[in-house]
Amino acid sequence: MKKLSLLAYTMSVLLIFLSCKNDNLLYTSFQEIKDTTWSFKDSVFFNWEIEDTTKSYSIHLNIRHTTSYKWANIFLFSDLVFPNDKARRDTFEFYFSDDYGHWTGDKSGLLVKHKFPLYERVRFPLKGMYKLNINQAMRDTQLVDLMNIGIEVYTNPTVK
To answer: Which domains can be identified in the chain, with CATH numbers?
Structure first.
């Protein structure tokens, strides 16, 4: 009886883990911000490969910071470099808190995690390696209390 209940428990846990897998996730990576201080001179780099140019993709930005981060927002420059070395530059602003100063991300202890859409339903025209370079673009040249910057690249479901 104990073996049967242990087997049922193991199968349940395995089923939960398998059902949580996102088949549409193509690439994910986090880069640590050294000494939790991000200078305007420092870039964060991500590289992933696109093999199917007929699908559309979405890129989400993940940012982790401490509750001591002194700004309610962040400005970023992003350079998306195509396999033919042509680049697209964009400027983004993301808000970390609401009008009352409360963090809007997932807070756990002294850490806050935010997930923002960076590019939604885009098509990559060329097969090959794509690079995303991100720089902070705030007036404060040293952003303190930023922990990690990450991206997730998803394949969007095909609409029939």
So the answer is: 24-155 (2.60.120.260)
